[in-house]
Structures are given as C-alpha cells and as structure tokens.
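[09:14] KT: can someone run the structure on this one? pasting the chain below
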Amino acid sequence: MSDTGRRIAITGANGFVGRAVSRALLARGIGATGLVRRGAQCEPGVDVRHIDGLESIAPDAFAGCDAVIHLAARVHVMRDAASPAETLLDAYRATNVDGTLAAAEAARRAGVTRFVLMSSIKALGESDPGRPFTEDDERHPPDAYGVSKAEAEVKLLEFGSRTGLEVAIVRPPLVYGPGVRANFLAMMRAIARGLPLPLGAIDARRSLVSVDNLASATIECALNPAAAGRLFHVTDGYDPSVAELARKLGEHLGKPARLVPVPAGLLRGVARLAGKSAQIDRLTGSLRVDSRRIRETLGWQAPQSLDEGLAATAAWFRSTHGH
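[09:31] RB: done, structure tokens below
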C-alpha cells in the first residue's frame, strides 16, 4: 500500500513530539488524525477529533485509521506535600498504563492493525550499566513515571500477543529540537546569556534524539511490517559528552559556551546540599543507548545528524528568544 490513502491517528497530537509526527506524516501525504482534548491546538492539516480522556475513548475515535501512534502520557504529576508515593504512582498508572490499554482496546475494536507506543528510556533506568542500554536489558525504572512506562510496555506487548493487535514500542532518550522545553531550554538560555557552566569536566556521554529523527522512526514503526511485536531504541547515532553538547550548542548559538571544569564529585556534593541531586546526577551520569536494532531490523536511517539537529534547535531559539 502506498503512503497515499493511509491514515494514522495520533493521541497527544498537540504536544512537542505530536506536532513533529503530524508534520512528518503530512509531508509524506499520509492522513493525520489528531486525538486531543478540547481547546488543544494541532498542526494545520491535521483532522482533529476531540476526546475527554484516554480511559473513556470510544472505537469511533479511531474510525478509518490504519495505525495509531500513542503519544498521550502523563509526564509530570503535581505532587502536593500530603500525597504518599503510592498515589503518585497511581496518578501515572491511570494515564500511562490503564489509558494506554483502553486506547489499544478501542483501536483494536475500530479495526486498527498497528499500535505504536511512545515509551521512554526511563522504563530501563536513569543511568546506563557501564555500556549502552540495549532493548533486551532488564527494566529497573528509577521513579514512578518510569515504573508506569515499564508496566505499559509489558502489558501492551501482552495485549498484542493475546488479541493480534500489532504492537511496536519506541524508547527515546532525551528528545530535543525546535520548541524544546525544560532542562535543554535552560541550558541554551544559560549559554546564550554567557553564564559560566560548571560542566567542563563532565565527560559522561549521553544519547540524544532530535524530535524530527524521533518522528521519522516512530512513523517507520507504524508502517513497517517488521516492527510488529518489537521494541526499538532511537537515537541520533552519536552520543556527545555533556561538555561537548554545551560546546556544540554554543557554536550554533554564536556564543561560545563558558565551561568551568568542576570535578564531578564536587558538583554532586554541592548539588546534595542544594537539594538538586537528581538534576546533577542526570548531567554527571552516563546514559548511552544502543539504537542498532531499528537500523538493522527496519532499515531506518536518522534523517538528521546531531549537528543538524542542534543547528535547527539553536536557530529556533535565536528566532524566538530574541538574540
């Protein structure tokens, strides 16, 4: 079947990754149906269908679609001081596990044949075991979000083998690109302002994936027969050190990064005192991801290099953050 005439549903089509997937589908002439809550803005050209939530999703939401790319997830739970860890995990599970299975069941009943879940490397862990993570590594999720993603993977694969729905799972590491938020945006802001960063001695290597590479790989998993029942890691294919990443960003921002070499142990000690251990562990720990399987099994190639992805992100930053 050629790309034309196909239609793929995207839950969470209004998000950072959802918008990139929508643009990539439309560029290939594939119909994109966005399943979002009322008031959510999607990319122009997306056929928008409103849903109230994943748990109550009806099969007709997926009518006419060949495949589903399931991006809707709970990434942050506002934690009030009174909530014990159990209810935090329950909040993640409701969307990420129960919501995913409800969407898969509705899709199956609508006649959809392929269901792609966007998971996260956090289903495996926060730092690698001294070598790049492979898809066959045991899951040791570090937090409630990671636990919910690990459970969703296991239950969805089991659902697929029980019902015949073709399931594929994509596990990205840190995703960046035009429109990126959170820590990556904070790092660009600091470099653009010329603030000194204590990252000069951090040689821990970390895998990244540009949002356009991730969109391309996810669509491949929705279309390629060989993806059925499989789990795939996706990266740009080159893992920079944290210091190298900051330097490359500085070059693309036209503002050399001011990197101060602070020993990792000292940085961690200061972070502990400031109550910022988790953030610093993420910078000083190595998190490399092996993404050979998707290239060998599906013949997928990343359309963008790390440098091209960083250049596009820096260009977006300069145009939107007034430099």
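[09:33] KT: thanks! DSSP finds ten helices and nine strands in the chain.
[09:34] RB: yep, looked fine to me
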